[in-house]
Amino acid sequence: MGKNSKKKGKKPMNVFEVANKQFKPKSKTKPVKSSLKHINTLKNEKVENLNEIFSQVQRDVKSISKNVAVEPKKQTPVVRNPPKEAVNVDNAAQLFSQL
After folding, report:
1. What is the pTM of this model?
2. 3-state SS string over 50-95?
3. Which helix (H) or strand (E) holds 45?
4. Cα end-to-end span (Å), the chain
5. pLDDT per residue as tens digits for the range 21-39
6. How far apart are alpha carbons 16 and 61 in whole angstroms?
7. Residue 4, Cα to own-chain centre: how many angstroms?
8. Cα 97 to the chain's mean position, in Å?
9. What is the DSSP letter of 16?
10. What is the Cα 24 distance to its own chain's centre?
11. Residues 3, 39: Cα–Cα separation, whole Å
């Protein structure tokens, strides 16, 4: 019986090849600070406007709810019409028996 002398795959030449590689620095980062400040000021203005609008709506709702609460609610009585003919139980039982 002979030994299997086939190679099973390529072995890496250098394990530390990636760690030793020197990378070029990428392009410099661009300042974002000024545009973020601009966006934040716009958002703050919108939030303040919305807060004012909602506070006005809340005041209006409170005033309306006070006006409605003062008026008492009248309950309308439910009127039932009495049956026009008296129910004949014996006749109904006879009809069911025919089914």
Report:
1. 0.34
2. HHHHHHHHHHHHHHHHHHHHHCCCCCCCCCCCCCCCCCCHHHHHHH
3. helix 33-70
4. 96
5. 666 667 777 766 777 777 8
6. 72
7. 64
8. 59
9. T
10. 45
11. 73
Token pair 């008296």 is at which residue?
86
Task: Give the CA dihedral 74, 75, 80, 81, nearest 10 degrees.
Answer: 0
In whole angstroms, give the CA distance from residue 88 to residue 94: 10
- Which amino acid type is present at position 20? N
Structure tokens at 44: 């703050």
The first and second tokens of residue 26, run together, are 């990428």
26-75 confidence digits (pLDDT tens):
777 776 677 777 788 889 899 999 999 999 999 999 888 877 655 566 77
Please state the length of the chain: 99
* Residue with tokens 């406007």, as numbered in its chain: 49
